[in-house]
Design goal:
The protein is built from 4 helices and 9 strands, in the order βαβαβββαββββα. It has 179 residues and is α/β, with parallel strands linked by helices. The protein has a 6-stranded mixed β-sheet with strand order 4-3-2-5-6-7, sandwiched between helices. Strands 1-9-8 form a 3-stranded antiparallel β-sheet. α3 links the parallel β5 and β6. Bound molecules: xanthosine-5'-monophosphate (XMP) and magnesium ion. Xanthosine-5'-monophosphate binds next to β5, α3 and β8.
């Protein structure tokens, strides 16, 4: 698997150190609030698991799956719900946990949906953001790292469902998705 990676962009130590910092910040901001932390499947699942262990307030977790990409590296522009939340978001303080914000369309869709369902507050924590291809302007409250306009995989992020189990963020060799 390592041989398919052109370059390691963010190594394991750097990732975990930044997640420590985000945990401290989020703990401070949500003290006494019992937020509902929403993980956007599947990409954010590894980040979610590490992040919540560093948030020192009571919290609840829920999961939602959204489709916008299929198996390609380009967005189809279409967003739909594959798995909805189990909990009501009404009057809850919501923290959305995302793997990466690229065009911003997925996140804009989710924020809109939670607003319609009358959440009390909505904040966003994304591990990565790729500013180069932003279409929808969305406010991100906590950002792990900014990444260049390259297709990245690992630590939850996939190419055709593979590479999610890498412990770091890497750039895939072009030959993998050009064949
Ligand atoms: P948008 O464009 O809606 O994209 O902000 C959000 C979702 O697209 C996926 N995405 C990627 N997945 N490497 C990936 O593995 C990437 O470089 C990449 N860029 C976008 C991702 O699922 C994200 O939640
Ligand atoms: Mg994905």
């Amino acid at each position: 698997m390592r041989k398919d990676i052109k370059e390691i962009l963010i190594n394991e130590v750097t990732l975990q150190r930044r997640i420590d910092e985000l945990g401290v910040e989020i703990t401070k901001d949500y003290e006494g609030k019992n937020p509902l932390i929403i993980c956007v499947l599947k990409g954010a699942v590894l980040f979610m698991a590490d992040l919540v262990q560093r948030i020192d307030t009571t919290l609840e977790m829920d999961f939602m799956a959204i489709s916008s990409y299929g198996d390609s590296t380009k967005t189809s522009g279409q967003v739909r719900i594959l798995k909805d939340l189990e909990k009501s978001v009404e009057n809850r303080d919501i923290l959305i946990v995302e793997d990466i914000v690229d065009s911003g369309l997925t996140l804009a869709y989710i924020i809109n949906l939670l607003r319609e369902r009358n959440a009390n507050s909505i904040k966003v924590c994304t591990l990565l953001e790729k500013p180069a291809r932003r279409v929808a302007q969305v406010k991100m409250d906590y950002i792990g790292f900014e990444v260049p306009d390259e297709f990245v995989v690992g630590y939850g992020l996939d190419y055709a469902e593979r590479y999610r189990n890498l412990p770091y963020i890497g750039i895939l060799k072009e030959e993998i998705y050009n064949t």
